[in-house]
Each structure stands twice: as structure tokens, then as C-alpha cells.
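Suppose you are handed only these lines of text.
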Amino acid sequence: MTVHAHIVGWGKYVPERVLTNDDLTHMVDTSDEWIRTRTGIAERHIVAEDETTATMAIEAAHEALEMANLRPTDLNLIIVATATPDHAFPATACLVQDALGATHAACFDLAAGCSGFVYGVGLAADLISSGAYRNALVIGAETLSRITDWEDRATCVLFGDGAGAVILQANGSDGGILSSLLGADGSGGDLLYLPAGGSRHPASHQTVSEGQHYLKMRGREVFRFAVRAMPAATRQVLEEAGLTIDDLSLIIPHQANYRITDASAKALGIPKEKVFSNVDRYGNTSAASIPIALCEALEQDRIHRDDLVVFVGFGAGLTWAAAAVRWSAPLPTMPLTRRRKIWYALSYRYAALRSLVRRFVRWLAARFTKE
Ligand code: UT7
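From them, the structure of the protein bound to oxa(dethia)-CoA can be written out as follows.
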């Protein structure tokens, strides 16, 4: 029997605090008019002091698990796509695993810039189709506000924070992820990068004073790359699924700039309405943008059973990725019963307790074991 990967759960989290274009005009020399006309962005969400990529990823994962009606222990794989992990190591995916109590899951982070979420979906779908895994949680989560130079008007107006997640599940029925493609061109690595903090330029007084821990971007070049990569990847992933643009119901593209998505729609010869956009309210949330947009498209009833949806992203690397999805999840999904809600709340409490006990046992072992 051929096994397909179906999306059976989804969820998102965006921080409460909203930073508007007007707020930015008090921080740098910019205007609401410039930001709106050049990017389509009106506002973005910014984390609170105690929030991180992992805390947002965990919130999105809670929603996705509850939607899929799965227990955390049903997960076999957790991938967190991010350019802003909590630490270089351990992987943010491990922090998510611990908080969920997903004790049977393999975990790793995936660094493919803004294409990371679609890379994760493609990879997880292939691993599921191979029979290696049954339930995979793929998260895109970013805290870009922590690597943004708030004095650089060319970049600080663009980015926002947030997280989105999906659960892919093995199933013998047709549909789900039909095809995916992942691409890269490392020669464009210097167009969008974080210079310091890695092994090339470890953190030092000098790197900090020079602002080398902030992201740098050559916007115009990335723009040119994006308007070529998005339509090409969309066409190719449909072709691999044996489909054409005419079969398409909706594109969920990486939300970076409405001019990029409009140009892509034009290049593909499809109406703008077939390209989902929410960049106005979130800005560019990198790897989180597509899963957040997917959740909103579902909330707005823009996706129906058997629709053909394409996820397509581009970003640092340079990278690009696309996935063609025959939507197969039941819609509308049933709201959680009170009993089930309580069950989930208790299971996360149990996970926190379990983590504490394991740390304590390790502490005891270190203190009292002679070696
Ligand atoms: O997630 C993947 C990675 N990122 C992207 O997808 C970003 C792709 N690039 C873009 O979206 C666009 O290139 C930007 C939105 C970043 C910039 O738009 P642009 O139309 O390419 O503007 P530009 O960089 O060519 O700058 C035009 C002018 C410049 O002034 P001069 O040199 O013409 O006098 C900039 O200094 O706009 C100026 N400018 C600003 N003015 C007001 C740049 N940033 C701002 C600003 N407010 N925030």
C-alpha cells in the first residue's frame, strides 16, 4: 500500500504586542506610506521579554496537536524550522519535545531561512512515505525582533515574530502532500545573513560594537531572486504532481512583500485572489509565515476539502521550496470537548513535572555517584 502524508492538524501563535508603522516612524526615518507602498506591511507582532522561539513554537504545537486529536506521545518526529533558535544547541525542537512530553519523537532544527517550513514539510512527507515515521510535527517559528537592527530602516520595518505548526500523518488514502521540491543556491548566501555569532565570527566585544549580530540584507537583489524563484517553483512542483496552474485552488506563499506575491501571480497568469496574503498584519515572519498564513486561510474558509494548495517559499541561503497539497483534512473540524481540553492541560503539566523529576534525578546522580 502506498503511504501518503496528510495534514491532520495545524496551529499558530503570534505575540500580543503589535508594532505599527506609525510606531516605527518614532524610531527611524520612515513613513507609514513608504512601508505600505513598498511592502504592504501595516503592522507586525513582537515578542514579550519572556517569550522566545521555543515558547511560541510550543503554543502553536498545542493547537496543532489538539486539532489532530493526538497525544504528544503519538509524535515520532519534531522539526523546528527557524533562523532564530533559542540556542545554537540544544535544538529548539528538543525544547518543544520536552514541554509537550513527546517522548517518542526524534527532534532537530532546520536552517533554510524563510523556506524552512516548506523544507520541513517536504522532508517529513518523504520520511512518512518511506514508512520511517507516522506522525510528524513541523513548526516554523521565529523571533526576528531579537536579530533586527532597530536603527536600520532598510530592515527593521520588514520583520515580525510568530510561529505556526502542522502535523503530518501517514495514511493510505490519496491526497495530502502530492509533491515537493527543495532548492538552494549558496552563491547568494551573502545577500541575507547574520554575520557574527557562529564559528567564523564568534561573539566578541568587537562583533557586538559593530552590530554584527543583526541580520543584513541586500533587499533589491533578494527581491529580484524572489520574483523569479516563486513562480518557477510553483510551476515545477505542480508539474511533478502531474498537475497544472489551472488545477490550483490557492497559493500560500512566503509573506515578505505584497509586490513579490503580486508579481508571482502575474507571472503565473492567475488572479491575485488565488494568492493568500496577510503580510499587512504580520510583516515577514520568515519560516513562520507560511504556517501562520495557512491557519488564517483555513479560519477564513479559503480552503476546502479536495482543494489543491501550493506552499511556496524563498529566503536566506539562498533557498526556495514548494509543496503541492491536496487538502484532505476534515472541515470544519470539531471543537475540543471540555473533557479533552482538561486532558491536554493535565498532560502538559505532567510533561513539566516529568522534566523536573528527570533533572532532579540527574542532579542526584551527579552528587552521589562516585566515578
Ligand atoms: O524573507 C525573504 C527575504 N526578504 C525579502 O523578501 C525582501 C525582498 N526585498 C524587498 O522586499 C524590497 O527590496 C525592500 C522592501 C526591502 C526594499 O524596497 P525597494 O523598493 O527595493 O527599496 P530600495 O531598497 O531600492 O530603496 C529605495 C529607497 C532608498 O532611497 P534612495 O537611495 O532611493 O534615496 C532607501 O534608502 O528607499 C529608501 N528606504 C526607505 N525609505 C523610507 C529604504 N528603507 C526605507 C524606509 N523608509 N524604511
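What can we learn from it? The chain has two domains: 4-326, 339-371. Residues 265 and 272 are 6 Å apart (CA to CA).
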